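In the previous chapter we treated chains in isolation. Here, by contrast, the input contains two separate entities that must be folded as one system, with a combined length of 984 residues.
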Amino acid sequence: MEHSCPLIKNVLLLDSEGKRVAVKYFCDEWPSLASKLAFEKSIFAKTQRTNARTEAEIGMFDGYIVVYKFIADLHFYVTGGDDENELILATVLQGFFDAVSLLLRNNVDKRTVLENLDLIFLCIDEIVDGGIILETEANVIAAKVAMRGADADVPLSEQTISQALATAREHLARSLLK
Amino acid sequence: MVYLMIKELSPSSDEVIIVTSSLMKDMNSKTDLYRANAIRVLCRITDGALLGQIERYIKQALVDKNVVVASAALVSGIHLLQSNPEIVKRWSNEVQEAVQSRSALVQFHALALLHQIRQNDRLAVSKLVTSLTRGSIRSPLAQCLLVRYTSQVIRETASGSQTGERPFYDFLEGCLRHKNDMVILEAARAITELNSVTSRELTPAITVLQLFLSSSKPVLRFAAVRTLNKVAMTHPLAVTNCNIDMESLISDQNRSIATLAITTLLKTGNESSVDRLMKQITNFMSDIADEFKIVVVEAIRSLCLKFPQKYRTLMNFLSNILREEGGFEYKKAIVDSILILIRDIPDAKDSGLSHLCEFIEDCEFSYLSTQILHFLGNEGPKTPDPSKYIRYIHNRVILENATVRASAVSALAKFGALVESLKPRILVLLRRCLYDNDDEVRDRATLYLSALEHGSQLEDKDFRADKFVFGSLDVPLANLEASLQAYVASEVRFDIHSVPKDAKAQPYAEKKAAGPKKPAKDTAMPVAANELSSSGVKSTDAYEKLLSSIPEFSTFGKLFKSSSPVELTEETEYEVNVVKHIYPGHVVLQFNCTNTIPEQLLENVHILVEIVEGDEFSEVVSKSLSSLPFNSPGQAFVAFEKPEGVYSLGKFANTMRFIVKEVDKDTGEVEDEGVEDEYQLEELEVLPSDYFLKKAVPNFKNAWENLSPEFERVDEYGLGVRENLNEAVQAVIEIFGLQPCEGTEVVPANARSHTCLLAGKFVGDISVLVRLSFGIDPQKQVAMKLSVRSEDQYVSDAIHEIISGA
């Protein structure tokens, strides 16, 4: 029984030791944090020895299809169900990968990514929304992310959550007064 | 960024209000980006009530010129469909417009949403598909979606009609030539997954996949190999063209691809290529991980069962890899495969057993050692030269740990019991075991020693200790366990005959041979050794055990065939189905009765069988069922005598007679007095197909040459008007009850002629081969030429009589 819409299960960005840098899950198949970490550990262990630097590689683990690519000390993974079209997953991976390269101006390595973590998360958000593919063109994704980042008054990634809500309230107040 | 935060937090309803108004403002702002994201966030955090308010904005956004906004609205719609379907359905007009949009992605999202909305309405979906296949789709993602919907429509329409033409097949084939690989792959996969697809339809899809196999991108290779693997399960012939490309993939860098390639090759290989494959696989096995190895081992097993002649190479291969390093699951899989091969290919038994013996000398898993030792104990005595296995087993007794030693002692004892000439030597060996460290080993040795030495002398109410110890359990293990538990709690002496033989032809569960069964205290009834399961247990074995345990039937000889259960009642109060057992000179009808009325208890159930047709039958024995409580099935038997070696047909009318007693549902008390009653069952026919046992023949042509033409008979028949050739072929196969060989029971659609090869055995172990040639003319008249070869003239004549009588 195939579902009609191609769904992505998660997008992962791990470092060279298999620890998380930026991850986003779009489904409930790994309900607890422990299971998520276990999954990341297992796919990292199984793909560690392969060489996925030039071309995207693909593998089937635990009944999921994982498409992955490595660059410098980072590992990009996109996971789908086992009846998914592999090329769709590969396109998503490629879009993600290229967009990140564009945003970080081709310095894709762990340090830069950690410094611009907000951009990375925005990027993932723009590509997949709740599992459904939103965009796959790297240029478009990068443009959307860049526009958003530039337009904010304060770099929101450095604020706490209550401060963010306060900012929202401020916006509201300001617009009422206008 | 704020949007992201809010989505993650998904605040409760009080806080939502603050954010909502701000977001609603944002939805009308000039920056498109803000609009888009505001919509997405809002849709995530709102509930139904609020949704009504913002619906207006969303509807506007759906047809907005800006791509981003439209996409956002559409995707949110898809998510909202899960929670508020009615509201989203109201937007379907706007969504329809959006489908026609020029932007690729908007089209994709709109199509997805529209499909979800209309999912349950089959007609709407097919209309949608029809309009779009003619129109132009710009985005490859949308094209993929369309392919999927098309195949869904095909699947749904095909279930109704039987036409050979598929409505959208041409569209799918056109997609195979699309620019984008994604679409090609999706179309190829959809074609292969269409049910009852013919090889002609498959060919273009397979050609395309073959091209992918040699691409440079691993993703394409993987996708192609995986799809071909699935196809190979149903249409192995179609995939053979790709074999050459796949062989080069075995050495691929990506291990998943390589494993898939190997398993596909193993499924589609033919006899000549097996040797070559084995050589390549040997190099390959050392590279891959354990879980892939298990997949390969299973594929090898099915390959060997398909080509039994090649067992030598495959067996050598399996024993080689058994010796190498590997985990428990992997070795277990190999051992299971070897055991299955030994069981199914009698020629392989000797070499298989020797391989296993060599393996246990060096095995680090005691579970496997005990399993193999038990198996040796069962099978070894039946080989022509059993003494050579004794050395291996005896070594285990000396060298290994306690569980393995115990199992080895059991195995030795079995040799002693079943092979008279070896008995004195076994006794010597067993006596040595009496001084072992472990008490389980000593117990077993004592038991077997006394059974072997004195067992033949104990004649106690036709109970022979050695037969009991070394034979198999007559009762299901679950019942035995329950009875034993009851015994331990009570003071009553344990009697194995009191354990209910609740025989429902249970396949015996697999138990470790080493699992210690402590002998019951204070009685002389030791518990016999456990049975090793066969993973492919045939129910004839189980029926045979059941029937041979009934003394009246033990004189009938060897059970030839048991039919599958035939229902004699509809969904009524008493469910009865009958199994027909064919013996050389008798027919036994086993009636499985179930009482589904909780308030009744049936006693003295017996079946009255009247012979309506069939003069050659005469009733011999009727066994009734003493008690049939609610919901526990029981068996009653009626046996008939018939002339030997003749296939007698007959029709029987059946009535079930019993005494019914009322049972109080709450207390479970049974009334003392009962009422006699009877219940009419449906009629039962004994057909010619009951006398034929299906037996596949791997190489029909060879077998045909081997049977002499002396007992051949050829004749032609007209079968009248039939819908299509397939129907005629299936009807004839069913009448005979023989096994179709080499896939000849599958008739291509719209075929004008077909040859079908059948093989089987008649009562008395007489081989029969039948060759049928069918032809259908434009007026749908079917003609059939039937040629039979067998070892007995009577059987060949019988086959023709069956057809002329049918």
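Residues 150-178 of chain A form one domain. Residues 86-103 of chain A form the longest helix (18 residues). Compare these points with the single-chain example from earlier in the chapter.
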